[in-house]
Amino acid sequence: MTGTDANGVAGHAPSKPLNELFCNLPTTIFEVMSKLAMEHNSVNLGQGFPDEEGPASMKEVAGQALTQFHNQYPSMLGVPELRQAVARHSANHAGIPCDWATETLVTVGATEGIAACMLGLINEGDEVIMFDPMYDSYVSMARRAGAVIKPVRLALPDFHVPLEELAAAFSPRTKLIMVNTPHNPSGKVFTRAELEAIAALCIQHDVIAVCDEVYEHLVFGGAQHVSLRSLPGMAERSVRLGSAGKTFSFTAWKVGWVTGPARLLAPIIKAHSFLVFTVSSSLQRGVAHGLDHESSFYLGLGPSLSKKRALLAPHLAELGFGILPGHGAYFLVADVSRFLRPGEDDAAFCMRLTREGGVTLIPISGFYIGPNPPRHLVRFAYCKDDAKLLAAVERLEKYLGPGGPGAPSKA
Ligand code: PMP
């Protein structure tokens, strides 16, 4: 490509290949669906951000911090107030003692924590085990860091861990396993027995666990969040990720944290120092206040989400969606086999539903990296106002209900 720049000089775009991995990444299904949702003014239950915001006191503390403190680079590791609050939170809620001075790092959301873990822990050719389906940022960053990904598919309908397959995925080259509980996109909460089996394999094969526990407080229906890092023998070989976006419904703040033993944290901190160096200090102070003084907010998230799920699920079941079990995060996975037209898959169904039915969901196949993903499942993000959930139900009834244009044929 050529063009003329401000100096009147004809320039040539460089012809050498840019980074292959990132150049070849397709547009994510989230971008595709969000764009389509905007074009069709649909009720968007695709993107997983809550309608309700976190505690007002946290905004006040963050706002005051902006005017009261020196607005210069805070410590690369995070402001002491937040690191101390993160350490207390780890001990009080996950049962994992934590030395704030040597075992905490504040990151730009859990997203940066994930990137820093991959870059800091992986060497070229290391094998990394990930459960399929998975949150989409894991794979690209791990591959960019040189990892060979070994996906292990969670088994339907309840996304349980297939223990024999998991054991078979470990090899002498396995460096790391990613464990996300409560799980995006399924809403599954890993059971203690599953986590104990994972821990035993990590110890047997000398493997590190990166525990993505951003939804740790979003649990209900009798399930209990257990941190893999809290199990015997795991504290020294795992790091744990948290997020103010999920714990306080402040997804725009992009404040997260990594806790873990100093030896594992050291290279993660080095990666963090070159990715972002540090994190907005006023927001960090707001989050510190929240962790120490607003526990009622995050402890209330589970019951409130449970009610929302109970509001949505019966309507969906009545319409013919097959509801898969889920006890955490804010995602509900449903089987849409009954609605699929010949040759249609989950992605095509979600596009049709947005265009014709005015409701946007996310096809689950987009969360898989292994071959032949299921193509009959969709994800609802139900962390939305009740009015929005009911508006979605009304549109679904009109479109997919008896006599509607998308109603399943009787055959
Ligand atoms: N992990 C999981 C499983 C997530 O679902 C998300 C956000 N959707 C993140 C990490 C990223 O969190 P943050 O917004 O704090 O970067």
Task: Please tell me about this protein's structure.
It comes from Chlamydomonas leiostraca. Belongs to the class-I pyridoxal-phosphate-dependent aminotransferase family. Pfam families: Aminotran_1_2 (PF00155). Residues 43-396 form the Aminotransferase class I/classII large domain. There is one protein chain. The protein is of the alpha/beta class and 411 residues long. It folds into two domains: 20-53 and 296-400, Aspartate Aminotransferase, domain 1 (Alpha-Beta Complex), CATH 3.90.1150; 57-293, Aspartate Aminotransferase, domain 2. The protein has helices spanning 20-23, 29-39, 56-68, 80-94, 100-103, 109-121, 137-144, 163-169, 192-205, 244-247, 262-275, 281-293, 295-319, 346-357, 386-400; strands at residues 2-4, 10-12, 43-44, 104-107, 127-132, 148-153, 174-180, 208-212, 238-243, 256-259, 322-323, 331-335, 359-360, 362-363, 377-381. Helix 6 packs parallel to helix 7. The longest helix has 25 residues, at 295-319. 4'-deoxy-4'-aminopyridoxal-5'-phosphate binds next to helix 6.
